[in-house]
Amino acid sequence: MDEVRKYVEKRYAEAARSPRRSGIINMTRRNYDGATLAAAPGGMAARSFGCGNPVEHAELIHGETVLDLGCGAGLDMFIASKAVGPEGRIIGLDMTGEMLAEAAGNLKELENVELLRGYIEDIPLADKSVDVVISNCVINLSPDKPAVLREAYRVLKPGGRFCVADMLFIRPVSERIVSNLAAWSGCIAGALLEEDYRRLAEEAGFIEVEIRRIKVFPIPESLASMAFPELSESERREIDGVLASAIVIGRRRRARSV
Predict the structure, then answer these.
(1) Torsions phi, psi of 91, nearest 5?
(2) What are the residue boundaries of the structural domains of the chain, listed by start?
(3) Which of 47, 129, 180, 203 is deepest in the core (most CB within 10 A)?
(4) Residue 169: φ, ψ to 5°
(5) Distance between CA atoms of residues 147 and 124, nearest Å
């Protein structure tokens, strides 16, 4: 667990400093409309490594408190801050100091945002303290996904919503791919099968779990050989078309009326 976490943190620190040289694929422009990206400050989009647009599906309401797990440079926080308005609150959590520094600069004009450094497996917030948990291509990076889902459930208020974009495996892959650190940081090795994601979410307590598949991602040999040189040619062929982005939605059960 520590080895994966340290490697992922190192790679995303590098991505914060120099996104084009990090080797992490940026799919931001596929996930957001041009007007949204044009309104985003500075290099926020260049340092966003999401696989979807969770805010689009979260149905945020004015005044809500939203937690963004693995907030990175703050793009989804920026969008969510507009949706919840000045009465709302957006909390961004990330383990990478360099990304939080980028987010702080990008979001400095917003008064309803707060940044925290910490791990998504151990969220530094009180029980039942947020209305919505969002995340964008981050939970797959965790080596302890059951802990992440339990923590997300813990901090949600009764009736609170969970809405994340993440990567899924369409079919199982070989152990060498799953254990490859570069494939972990590239949002490949840590992906779950759809049925496993649903099971873990339900085991954490979520109800009404829904998984909406967005897009299957081809990974051509030319890209795979550059990003994952440790993998054999057959293993690089194996990951081509094996991943899909998805929106995963769930809800914490409402408190029972007395």
Answers:
(1) -115, 125
(2) 2-251
(3) 47
(4) -80, 135
(5) 13
Using 50, 70 and 90 to split pLDDT, how confident is the model at 190? very high
Long-range contacts of the stretch 84-90 (C-beta < 8 A, 24+):
84/60, 84/112, 85/112, 86/111, 86/112, 87/62, 87/63, 87/112, 88/60, 88/62, 88/63, 88/64, 88/112, 89/64, 89/65, 89/113, 89/114, 90/65, 90/66, 90/114
Q: Residue 210: beta bridge partners?
A: 249
122-158 residues labelled b (16+ CB within 10 A) or e (exposed) = ebebeeeebbbbbbbbbbbbbbbbebbbbbbbbbbbe
Question: What percentage of the chain carries pLDDT values higher than 90?
Answer: 61
Tell whether the model's pLDDT for residue 22 goes beyond 80.
no
Q: Which carries the bigger pLDDT value, residue 10 or residue 74?
A: 74
List the CATH code of the domain at 2-251.
3.40.50.150
What pLDDT does residue 182 have?
Answer: 81
Q: Give the CA distances from residue 140 to residues 143, 229, 243, 253, in Å, rounded to whole numbers and listed in that order.
A: 8, 21, 12, 24
More confident residue, 245 or 236: 245
Q: How large is the average pLDDT for residues 166-188?
A: 87
Residue that is written with structure tokens 């450094």 in the block: 117
